[in-house]
From TrEMBL:
<comment type="similarity">
    <text>Belongs to the ABC transporter superfamily.</text>
</comment>
<keyword id="KW-0067">ATP-binding</keyword>
<dbReference type="GO" id="GO:0005886">
    <property type="term" value="C:plasma membrane"/>
</dbReference>
<feature type="domain" description="ABC transporter">
    <location>
        <begin position="5"/>
        <end position="248"/>
    </location>
</feature>
<protein>
    <submittedName>
        <fullName>ABC transporter oligopeptide permease OppF</fullName>
    </submittedName>
</protein>
<dbReference type="Pfam" id="PF00005">
    <property type="entry name" value="ABC_tran"/>
</dbReference>
<dbReference type="GO" id="GO:0015833">
    <property type="term" value="P:peptide transport"/>
</dbReference>
<dbReference type="InterPro" id="IPR050319">
    <property type="entry name" value="ABC_transp_ATP-bind"/>
</dbReference>
<dbReference type="InterPro" id="IPR017871">
    <property type="entry name" value="ABC_transporter-like_CS"/>
</dbReference>
<dbReference type="GO" id="GO:0055085">
    <property type="term" value="P:transmembrane transport"/>
</dbReference>
<dbReference type="Pfam" id="PF08352">
    <property type="entry name" value="oligo_HPY"/>
</dbReference>
<dbReference type="GO" id="GO:0016887">
    <property type="term" value="F:ATP hydrolysis activity"/>
</dbReference>
<keyword id="KW-0813">Transport</keyword>
<dbReference type="InterPro" id="IPR003439">
    <property type="entry name" value="ABC_transporter-like_ATP-bd"/>
</dbReference>
<dbReference type="GO" id="GO:0005524">
    <property type="term" value="F:ATP binding"/>
</dbReference>
<dbReference type="InterPro" id="IPR003593">
    <property type="entry name" value="AAA+_ATPase"/>
</dbReference>
<dbReference type="InterPro" id="IPR027417">
    <property type="entry name" value="P-loop_NTPase"/>
</dbReference>
Length: 312
């Protein structure tokens, strides 16, 4: 499979005044191949949403580079930027985000088509095909957002995101606002669309049950950096990083009592701890961890970890 998206040492810093600097993304490198789904996993505030936006050029980067199909998003001409916008799309947690309450569903889905100069005559048929792709009937086109359930609204958002035939969709917590029963339907829809359209997907989630169903590969983020990366099932079955282990252990299971939770809160990204950023919460931390930051290194085929003492 060809590499579609590459991030090289991407950094995103927010200057908050008073000399305070928040490192939302602290040097992330990753890649996504055509048709593949990569899950970005981590607790809220770990930088995954900021990174997700940066991956499709919705957020500038302060250092490093994002390459889509070999083109650096930071140096595109405005014409290229416009052309590429349709090929990289975002789906948000908020199911109301992309739907105008005063417009019909069909109108909202048609908007990107109009902006990108698709002929008026071709639009109704394209809208019908898009609705069908996301499992909604043709008549949905003339209804308004309030007439749909949350799950149906997310289907409409996905239809709109697919309007210009993207190669990559970044989905930021796309099911976490939905009922659990509906979550599985939307996850299945994503998987189905990936298979049918060859769509690559960056799936941002804090929910490992969702990630398990969705991800070909997983990148685990902690305080703005990737701490572990690998094939989805391999990471979930045998995590190498103590933080990944703790995330997996925190998921309730019927066959065992919950192990003790991680100690402490996620430290503020305004003042990340020295050495390994996870050391204040890590049950395996020793002196070296407090002084020397582990780098993300290969520990097997396609498998990386940023820990001095990986668990495997
Ligand atoms: Fe824990 Fe040390 Fe590994 Fe960091 S480097 S995760 S503190 S064992
Ligand atoms: Mg977020």
């Amino acid at each position: 499979m060809t590499v579609l998206l590459e991030a090289h040492d991407v950094r995103r810093v927010y200057r908050l005044g008073g000399g305070r600097v928040l490192q939302a993304v602290a040097g992330v490198s990753l890649h996504v191949k055509e048709g593949e789904s990569l899950a970005l996993v981590g607790e809220s505030g770990c930088g995954k949403s900021t990174l997700g936006r940066a991956l499709i050029g919705l957020e500038p980067v302060d250092a490093g580079a994002v390459l889509f199909d070999g083109e650096n998003l930071a140096t595109l001409t405005s014409r290229r930027r416009h052309a590429l916008r349709g090929r990289m799309q975002m789906v948000f947690q908020n199911v109301h985000a992309a739907l105008n309450p005063r417009r019909t569903a069909g109108d909202s889905i048609a908007e990107p088509l109009r902006i990108h100069g698709i002929g008026r005559a071709a639009i109704p048929e394209r809208v019908r095909v898009l609705l069908d792709l996301v499992g909604l009937p043709e008549q949905a086109a003339v209804r308004y957002p309030h007439e749909f359930s949350g799950g149906q609204r997310q289907r409409l958002n996905i239809a709109r995101a697919l309007a210009l035939d993207p190669a990559l969709v970044v989905a930021d917590e796309p099911v976490s606002a939905l009922d659990v029963s509906v979550q599985a339907q939307i996850v299945n829809l994503f998987r189905d669309l990936q298979a049918r359209l060859g769509l690559a997907c960056v799936f941002i989630s804090h929910d490992l049950a969702v990630v398990r169903q969705m991800a070909d590969r997983i990148a685990v983020m902690y305080l703005g950096a990737i701490v572990e990366e690998g094939e989805g099932m391999a990471v979930l079955a045998a995590p190498a990083h103590p933080y990944t282990r703790a995330l997996i252990d925190a998921v309730p299971r019927p066959d065992r009592p919950l192990p003790p939770p991680l100690q402490g809160e996620v430290p503020s990204p305004l003042s990340p701890p020295p050495g390994c950023r996870f050391h204040p919460r890590c049950p395996h931390a020793i002196g070296r961890c407090r002084e020397e930051a582990p780098i993300l290194r290969d520990i097997g085929p396609g498998r990386k970890v940023a820990c001095h003492f990986p668990l495997i």
